[in-house]
Amino acid sequence: MNRRHFVELAAASSAALATGCITPLSSRWHLWQSTSSIHFKSLPLEQACERIAGLGFTDQSLA
After folding, report:
1. 52 membership: H or E segment, kind and range
2. Which end of the chain is less enclosed by CB atoms within 10 A, N or C?
3. Residue 49 in contact with residue 37, Cβ under 8 Å?
């Protein structure tokens, strides 16, 4: 990691904390993971969805 990358990362982290996009680790938080069928573009959509479901992903609304 060079100095420029470190400064960019520090600035982005500070902005995310300031805007509430992320919270400090001391508070309770949940890790949300996502994926896309593009990772399985060589497969038909149905098979891609089956593979994604097999990895443990579920369809959950953020609403």
Report:
1. helix 45-54
2. C
3. yes
